[in-house]
Write a structure and sequence with these properties.
Elements: E1 2-6, H1 13-24, E2 28-30, H2 31-41, H3 44-55, H4 61-71, E3 81-84, H5 90-103, E4 109-114, H6 117-126, E5 127-130, E6 136-138, E7 157-158, H7 165-179, H8 181-188, E8 192-196, H9 201-213
Parallel strand pairs: 1-3, 1-4, 2-3, 4-8
Antiparallel strand pairs: 5-6, 5-7
The structure holds BIS(adenosine)-5'-pentaphosphate and magnesium ion.
Length: about 220
């Protein structure tokens, strides 16, 4: 099954996509995670992307489209994939359709996760990430068993550079201006499944599964 997870920063795309990836045994492809790895590794792409990410702006379309086009050709995508945080603009969505057509594939469902702005800000400010395996936590809503330490791999947790309040507001502005139009874009194609992102993480996962299976 080929899926897209759409939603504002902090909606729970990564949290839900990683759980669904395990349940459906298909890879989660997070452009944010791929870009952060490139920044850490200091690659040419990472150096280029860093200033956009640090300011809360979107990275140019051609950079992310190139990343996804390449990643979708990997063997682990043959049975399906979950795109987490891509596409983020209408130009990216159009480019994705072209790439998929070339591979003889198509998207089955676009899961749009909705959460109000106040909740988003509180989620982002409390988020912590594992420096090694990338697992996400929340200080209050989804804390690790030992403070500051990843349950999965025992590495230290850190706060993302773009999770500061000022950058967060810019990311939200970017979302409403450039990404939210994709809701109408996919709705018009009858691909959109809207899921409330408020509530227990497990309950939201069940609603996503029902949305996929019941349509
Ligand atoms: P990216 O990494 O994709 O960030 P984002 O879209 O801003 O989304 P987040 O990862 O912040 O939130 P999420 O929805 O994954 O929420 P999460 O599950 O972590 O992008 C970062 C940057 O990279 C962009 O700003 C841009 O510069 C660049 N970029 C990436 N893709 C791009 C693209 N396609 N085009 C251009 N540029 C691109 O959850 C958030 C917190 O809430 C966590 O702490 C979690 O534990 C907690 N939580 C989750 N669910 C719940 C719940 N139900 N109840 C309570 N807490 C919850
Ligand atoms: Mg994420």
């Amino acid at each position: 099954m080929n899926l897209i997870f759409l939603g504002p920063p902090g909606a729970g795309k990564g949290t839900q996509a990683s759980m669904l990836s395990v349940a459906l045994k298909i890879p989660q492809i997070s452009t944010g995670d791929i870009l952060r790895s490139a920044v850490r590794a200091g690659t040419t792409m990472g150096v280029r992307a860093k200033s956009f990410m640090d300011s809360g702006s979107l990275v140019p379309d051609e950079v992310v489209v190139g990343i996804v086009a390449e990643r979708l050709q990997d063997d682990d995508c043959t049975k399906g994939f979950i795109l987490d945080g891509f596409p983020r603009t209408v130009a990216q969505a159009d480019a994705l359709s072209e790439v998929l057509a070339g591979l003889g594939k198509q998207i089955e469902h676009v899961i749009s996760i909705t959460v109000d702005d106040e909740e988003l800000l509180s989620r982002i400010s409390g988020r912590r990430m594992c420096a090694k395996c990338g697992k996400g936590y929340h200080l209050q809503f989804d804390p690790p068993k030992v403070p500051g330490v990843c349950d999965n791999c025992g590495s230290n947790l850190y706060q993302r550079d773009d999770d500061k309040v000022e950058t967060m507001r810019k990311r939200l502005d970017e979302y409403y201006l450039k990404t939210a139009p994709l809701i109408d874009y996919y709705s018009a194609k009858n691909m959109l499944r809207t899921i409330s992102g408020i509530g227990a993480i497990e309950e939201i996962q069940q609603n996503i599964l029902k949305g996929i299976e019941g349509s």
